[in-house]
Design a protein that fits this description.
The structure is a single chain. By secondary structure, this protein is of the alpha+beta class. It has 5 domains: about 70 residues, Winged helix-like DNA-binding domain superfamily/Winged helix DNA-binding domain (Arc Repressor Mutant, subunit A, Orthogonal Bundle); about 60 residues, Nucleic acid-binding proteins (OB fold (Dihydrolipoamide Acetyltransferase, E2P), Beta Barrel), CATH 2.40.50.140; about 70 residues, OB fold (Dihydrolipoamide Acetyltransferase, E2P) (Beta Barrel), CATH 2.40.50; about 290 residues, no CATH class; about 80 residues, Nucleic acid-binding proteins (OB fold (Dihydrolipoamide Acetyltransferase, E2P), Beta Barrel). The strands form 9 sheets. A 7-stranded mixed beta sheet has the order 13-20-19-16-15-14-21. The protein has a 5-stranded antiparallel beta sheet with strand order 5-4-3-6-7, with no helix packed on it. The protein has a 5-stranded antiparallel beta sheet with strand order 10-9-8-11-12, with helices on one face. α14 packs antiparallel against α16. The two termini are about 25 Å apart.
């Protein structure tokens, strides 16, 4: 399939600036106005033309170009050498399995191609210095890596192959394109064929392979625990907590002093409940409900007060920051906090007094917020529900606390409806879940559906997150903004949107780009139209890729997908470090203290965003591995599937019901010679013209499973 485009942090503006400078660089003595530059770039809409005009003014202000007369510019002669001589950039390596690479850099408007013989000693995600080759007309930008500035990964997971006095570790991850040479005295008693963790110790100038040493032996490939630990180690997540940290957690006092209770608003006599997955142990949020005399409802969103127990710069806090998030693999959770905190002290278990940080709202019948209060509380949860129990009560209209649950659901639906009217996009993602036996082997696969019980909790968490962000973020005129942690989501670039529109148009769907609200409505209609169809997964996946990635930042730009001007993460401090930061900042400002150090918090935001992405990749790998393992004893069996993608190598098919995706290689389609019609997302037989296109339902046979690569190969039945 086509290579994924990477988001540039600098966004459209930086890309345009680079392209604009390129036009001046190619014509260093010619003057241009913004309309001429826009025409040269192929920009036609007024918004983008205005952006070109603004960037040219900025470039003139930075001394890159000179204004010769009103509205006319030419290249600054002092910058001529930048275009005539050697030019270097720094960037991040995106390594291909073949050994070729692309460089993602904020300094240039496109990815730079690096051929396999020009990658020097770089590995995936390394920060490198690149010499750009002179641009050839009609060719992609190319270069050569000349220096590895920073090695990204500290350890690599793979299978060791021992031969006499030396060995090689064959890395699991396909982005690590070279094997690692291990001398005899650096093998740590590993046996041939075992999974190991190793580190690179040296890479001699003229050596083809890096040198390394084994630092941990994981065990036999294919064993459940070995494979799950391999995934964690691949992303450099710890396999457990060090003893000194567990000992520190054990010292924390479990009792709640009366002096602490007196400082807090008491909700112990207010009906309070938790709703979580049935296998959850860390209950970090609870809801309280009471009807007020004026007919309105008071809804309390009570969040575990982790900041009461985890103090800044303590060893537990430093470990939590390092991890930044809990990791949820198929069969286990690797918590951000030690178990005494995550599953005991901070978990809002029923019929136990717990300390919380709460957001309490008075809502009318239309779910409009009449009053709000934020502060420290003490609660005693009356009941622990799982989602399935609540769903049954909502559907039948009867059961324990049915009246209260139906009221909460009605308010949540009203909040949800208002959110979509304001332009929120209903991104749909299906979670693949597994039934495992005692050894961790997958017995069955099912898709977790988002039902009203899930949406009920989601809406109140969104409300709390939004209102906390508004409380701190909204400032009066001339008032200086306080440092805060926001959950931000940038709007998609016009280029990405137009590419997506073109893609769905070819599949027979339409999108309205007039404004955010009409675009959001179009997206939501599209997701409804593709539900259950072969192209559903691909359209949803590309829709998400079209959007910017949500991340943490102290600079608020709002949340595009949710259509919120202010948004944060306040509701899960047990499993997300940014939420813990938000709790500390909120308490600080409620106490009337001055603004926190912005640089310190921004650094933590960047780290948290990066760790979140790594956790998501690890979680996806664990799902992919278990899907491959599930099909391991089903080789030769047939299943109904939908074509989910096409490439020059083959057709991707996703089995209906369990979402196991594999490839049918074109060379295995023996009735004809098939070629890719990339523009129309199909492959066509050259002789007979038979086509397989995105969304077609087919019957497949499981041909081959490669567990080590998490790869499933199918053939047509």
């Amino acid at each position: 399939m086509a290579r994924k485009k990477r988001k540039k942090k600098s966004g459209k503006k930086n890309t345009l600036a680079y392209n604009i400078l390129g036009i001046f660089g190619k014509n260093p003595y010619k003057t241009f106005n913004y309309k001429q530059v826009a025409a040269a770039l192929g920009v036609k809409d007024k918004t983008s033309k205005d952006l070109v005009d603004k960037i040219m003014i900025d470039l003139a202000g930075a001394g890159e170009i000179l204004e010769t007369r009103k509205g006319k510019y030419k290249l600054n002669p002092e910058k001529l050498d930048d275009f005539a001589g050697k030019r270097y950039i720094t960037g991040i390596v995106d390594m291909m399995q073949t050994g070729k690479a692309y460089i993602v850099s904020d300094e240039i408007g496109e990815d730079v191609f690096i051929s396999a013989n020009n990658t020097y000693h770089a590995l995936n995600k390394d920060k490198v210095k690149v010499l750009l080759f002179p641009q050839r007309k009609g060719r992609k930008t190319e270069g050569q890596i000349v220096e590895v500035i920073e090695r990204k990964k500290k350890q690599y997971v793979g299978t060791i192959e021992i031969s006499h006095h030396y060995a090689f570790v064959i890395p699991d991850h396909k982005s690590t394109h070279v094997d690692i040479f291990i001398p005899e005295n650096k093998q740590k008693d590993a046996k041939n064929g075992q999974k190991v963790i190793c580190k690179i110790t040296d890479w001699p100038e003229h050596a083809k392979n890096p040198f390394g040493e084994v630092i941990h032996v994981l065990g036999k490939p294919g064993e459940h625990n070995v494979e799950m630990e391999s995934i964690l180690a691949e992303y450099e997540f710890p396999l457990g907590f060090p003893k000194h940290l567990e000992d520190e957690a054990a010292k924390i006092n479990v009792g709640i002093p009366k002096s602490e209770i007196r400082k807090r608003k008491d909700f112990r006599d207010v009906l309070t409940l938790t709703i979580d997955p049935k296998d959850a142990k860390d209950f970090d949020d609870a809801l309280s409900l009471r009807k007020l005399e004026n007919g309105n409802y008071e809804v309390g969103i009570h969040i575990a007060d982790v900041s009461h127990y985890v103090k800044p710069d303590s060893i537990i806090d430093k470990e939590a920051l390092s991890r930044a998030t809990s990791i949820y693999l198929v069969d286990r959770v690797i918590p951000m906090l030690p178990e005494k905190l995550s599953n005991m002290l901070c978990s809002l278990r029923p019929r136990e007094e717990k300390l919380c940080f709460s957001a309490v709202f008075e809502l009318d019948e239309k779910a409009k917020v009449i009053k709000q209060w934020f502060g420290k509380t003490i609660i005693n949860s009356d009941k622990r529900f799982n989602y399935e129990e609540v769903q049954e009560i909502l559907e039948k209209g009867k059961g324990e606390l049915s009246e209260e649950l139906i009221t909460l659901n009605k308010l949540a639906k009203t909040l949800r409806s208002a959110r979509f009217k304001k332009g929120a996009i209903n991104f749909k993602s299906q979670e693949v879940r597994f039934d495992l036996d005692d050894e961790g082997n997958p017995l069955s696969i099912y898709i977790k559906e988002q039902k009203d019980s899930n949406k009920l909790i989601e809406e109140f968490m969104l409300l709390a997150n939004r209102k906390v962000a508004e409380l701190i973020g909204k400032k009066k005129p001339k008032e200086k903004a306080k440092t805060f942690v926001y959950r931000i989501h940038d709007q998609p670039t016009p280029e990405k949107l137009s590419t997506f529109v073109e893609f769905v148009n070819k599949l027979g769907y339409k999108l309205n780009l007039n404004n955010q609200r009409s675009l959001a409505k179009s997206f939501n209609q599209l997701f409804e139209q593709v539900a259950g169809k072969g192209e559903e997964h691909m359209i949803e996946t590309i829709a998400i890729r079209t959007m910017a990635k949500a991340e943490y930042s102290t600079d608020n730009i709002g949340h595009y997908g949710l259509a919120f001007s202010y948004y944060t993460h306040f509701t899960s401090p047990i499993r997300r470090y940014p939420d813990l930061m938000v709790h500390r900042l909120l308490e600080r400002y409620l106490d009337g203290k001055d603004s926190a150090n912005k640089t310190e918090y921004e650094d933590k935001c960047i780290h948290s965003s990066e760790m979140e992405r790594k956790a998501q990749e690890a979680e996806r790998d664990s799902v992919k591995y278990k899907q491959a393992e599930y099909l391991l004893d089903k080789i030769g069996q047939e299943f109904e599937a939908l074509i989910s993608g096409v490439s020059k190598w083959g057709v991707y098919a996703e089995i209906i019901g369990n979402k196991c995706e594999g490839m049918i290689r074109l060379k295995d389609l023996e009735d004809d010679f098939y070629y890719l019609d990339e523009d129309n997302y199909r492959v066509i037989g050259q002789r007979y013209g038979y086509t397989y296109k995105l969304g077609d339902q087919i019957r497949i046979r499981v041909k081959k499973i490669d567990l080590s690569r998490k790869q499933m190969d199918f053939e047509l039945a």
